[in-house]
Design brief:
The radius of gyration is 23 Å and the shape is globular. The chain folds into three domains: 3-122, Rossmann fold, CATH 3.40.50.2300; 130-264, Rossmann fold, CATH 3.40.50.2300; 309-415, Arc Repressor Mutant, subunit A (Orthogonal Bundle), CATH 1.10.10.60. The model is unreliable at 7-12 (pLDDT under 50). The chain has helices at residues 12-25, 41-56, 70-81, 99-108, 130-143, 159-175, 193-207, 221-233, 267-282, 310-325, 332-338, 343-354, 358-376, 381-388, 393-404, 408-415, and strands at residues 3-6, 30-35, 60-65, 87-91, 111-114, 124-128, 149-154, 184-187, 215-218, 243-245, 262-264, 292-295, 298-300. Helix 8 (221-233) links the parallel strand 9 (215-218) and strand 10 (243-245). With 418 residues, the protein is α/β, with parallel strands linked by helices. The strands form three sheets. It has a seven-stranded parallel β-sheet, with helices on both faces.
Length: 418
């Protein structure tokens, strides 16, 4: 089994008839993924993760791209409505005029939506905990000592951007920090050169205002890349003149120009979990209640929020080592020795740089991993606790309830109903 990308050029009618016939011939054990733009990095990664999971289970994935066209979206939805395939994955944005077709698919077949929640009852959702990601970005800047923090976002009604903006607002309020209106920049959305030309003068005006923020939380890496490019053209340096934290950890934006501190998400994991939700109903015959599965993101610290020196490179090495080894009994002494520091001094400096203790950081990694296991497997709570690196099931239970405000059992029931 493999993945098929069906994206023929116009005229539409022959293509639509051909797609309908193609799906009717190959409807058995076939899932259809319909996306706004498969050329977008996130969409492509989600489709790749979904295809890996589909292939591993003996199914086929057909990926359809409506190329940001509401008309083409409707044509594709009408073409697949009567195809008799096993299930659907809805990826990314949608035109409100086409919600009726999405709703009709949900009534007839197992469906999962990812990234962009659609207002349709009874629809599974797999996405990122956007709000928690925004909190990670803001707490990082606040812990570094920044008190004048701005936000750059986009003029598009996407829930993910709203949640990131809300995390910005709440973080400032919790820290008792001021947020002047001029420190929030709303840019026009669009990916072509015309759209970029509309954004550039707004970014320049924002960066040259008399009272510029000391740091910026930017809603997406590609927007942060444009902002850093404009800053350099104005003779400004990042992070010397202002620090920047992005969101997504999307290549190539996060590693061009000034390496970007960002909130990392795992698009392939989203695709895999979406397929697992479909398989739960199609293959296993489980009539599960609609679930909202949110994958916890992770902060990746690079040069844009703190100048890269031998010291910051050392901390990057520390973080990579912790991310690779948190499931075993990893100690302060071990990691401190690895970077040539006395362990008491290392602990103090770790808390100063990351805003929390070494053990708290390790436990955060373990809890994120445990949450994924609870949402995607049927392992016992004891097995999940042990596999995530907790030596005691009771300790795991206490920390999990403190972090997620529900017990591991209740969390599993919410995520993966029986």
């Amino acid at each position: 089994m493999n993945s098929t990308l069906f994206a023929a050029p116009r005229p539409a009618e022959p293509m639509i008839h051909g797609l309908t016939a193609f799906l009717r011939r190959r409807h058995e054990k076939t899932f259809v993924l319909i996306a706004q733009d498969l050329a977008h990095w996130h969409a492509g990664e989600i489709a790749a993760g979904a295809n890996l999971a589909v292939t591993a289970n003996g199914y086929r994935l057909v990926s359809l791209d409506f190329r940001r066209s509401a008309e083409r979206e409707r044509e594709l939805l009408e073409a697949i409505r009567d195809a008799g395939v096993s299930g659907f994955i809805f990826l990314w944005d949608h035109a409100s005029s086409n919600l009726d077709l999405y709703a009709s698919l949900v009534e007839s077949r197992p469906c999962v939506q990812v990234i962009d929640p659609k207002p349709i009852p009874g629809l599974d959702f797999v996405g990122i905990d956007e709000y928690s990601g925004g909190l990670l970005a803001m707490r990082h800047l606040i812990n570094l000592g920044y008190r004048q923090i701005g936000h750059v976002t986009l003029q598009v009604p996407m829930q993910c951007l709203c949640e990131r903006r809300q995390a910005y607002v709440d973080s400032l309020a919790q820290a008792g920090l001021h947020m002047p209106d001029e420190w929030v920049l709303n840019l026009p959305y669009g990916l072509n050169e015309v759209d970029r030309c509309l954004r550039v003068p707004l970014i320049r005006q924002f960066l040259t205002q008399p009272q510029r923020p000391q740091a910026l939380f930017v809603c997406a890496d590609w927007v942060a890349s444009e902002l850093i490019e404009c800053a350099q053209e104005l003779g400004l340096s990042v992070p010397e003149d202002f620090a920047v934290v992005g969101f997504d950890d999307s290549l190539p934006y996060c590693l061009t120009g000034v390496p970007l501190t960002t909130v990392r998400i795992d698009p392939q994991q989203i695709g895999r979990l979406a397929v697992e939700r479909l398989l739960l109903q199609v293959r296993d015959g489980v009539k599960a209640e609609p679930a909202r599965i949110l994958i916890p993101p992770m902060l990746i610290v690079r040069e844009s929020s703190a100048r890269t020196t031998a010291t910051t490179e050392r901390w990057a090495l520390v973080v990579r080592h912790m991310q690779n080894n948190f499931r075993r009994d990893i100690s302060v002494r071990e990691v401190a020795s690895m970077v040539g520091l006395e362990h008491h001094y290392f602990s103090h400096q770790f808390s100063r740089v990351f805003g929390r203790r070494f053990t708290d950081y390790v436990n955060e990694l373990r809890l994120q991993y445990a949450a994924q296991l609870l949402a995607t497997t049927e392992h016992t709570i004891q097995h999940v606790a042990s596999d995530a690196g907790f030596g005691s099931e009771n300790h795991f239970y206490t920390l999990f309830k403190r972090a997620y405000h529900v017990s591991p059992h209740a969390f599993r029931k919410q995520q993966l109903p029986r």
